[in-house]
Amino acid sequence: MAASMEMQEEERDYLQKLPNEVLEEIFSYLDKDSVKNLRVVNKRCKKVVDSSKEILKKFDVKQANRLVIRYLHEKKFYEFRWCNYESKTARKIYITSEELKNDQIFYFAFKQMSFQRVMFKNLSNKSLSNEVLYFLCKHFSYCPKFEPTNLSFENVDFCVLSPTLLNRLLELCGQFLETFQINNAYGLNRNSINDSHIKQLNPLKIKRLTMQSMKFLSSIYHKKVLKITDESIKWLMGAGQFPTLVFEHCQITTPIMCRYIECWLKKAARDTVNTNIKSHSFMLKHCPSVSSEIFEKECIERKLSYSKSSPESSSTPEQTYTLFNENSSTEFAVSLC
């Protein structure tokens, strides 16, 4: 019995003396299930497996239709949940704030994944932190193919998030996004979302931009308007692209909005290829440089035909306009509030 234990100790010592390159060569002959089991033997085996491109080739890339990141306050950890609609499968990873700070690595899981949609949901009370976004940016870079078409933030607190980290996330995926939307965000300041973030998107890809239900920090030092300006609109028009826009508390002006509409109407009238595109829309709410009065004057000066819909009740400040080409069936709907 003692001799058997002594032999096991000698074998373990022998393995420990082998360089990582030799272990990687040995491990490469194992099947997938054996590799998975090997990762939990010890930290060194896990490191050898996770750093080997050859071993990881054994595992097919899995397409996840949706990745949802949320914080469970009652349990005090983050949940990363991805699912595949076709196979009706789902997987979850749980991680605490402390593990995020200690740079916990989930390389193996992300190295096998590709995400179509990324959703940040219900991250309140400062839980959308720099640590969680840094963690995600790092792990998204491990994905063999990180090309999501949809990035959304819903019911999230931005008060401790650095705009630089959001910029980093958009650097990774902005070129592939068709939809970028932020709904019910709070704890904002003027730089939380700005022109530099919009310009990380691919104007040839993006189809919808939404920033609505925005709440700002209560402070005399924070202006309650995002630094999304006419530069973002000019940048889109410069590429000849006109995504649907829903903006709130931005610094966009009435003249540039009218120019955007005018350019789209002209393009739509000339476009004989996409004949199915008959309508478009633009919504601006609580933008200090936009008003119905100036908008109507701009339309008259630019000879843009429009009709105006009165609000259903006098307490509703929203004004709705429909602009159209006289010689075509295309129209552009505008909502101002």
UniProtKB/TrEMBL annotation:
PROSITE patterns: FBOX (PS50181). InterPro entries: F-box-like_dom_sf (IPR036047), F-box_dom (IPR001810). SUPFAM superfamilies: F-box domain (SSF81383). It comes from the Eukaryota. Residues 12-59 form the F-box domain. This is F-box domain-containing protein. It comes from Acrobeloides nanus.
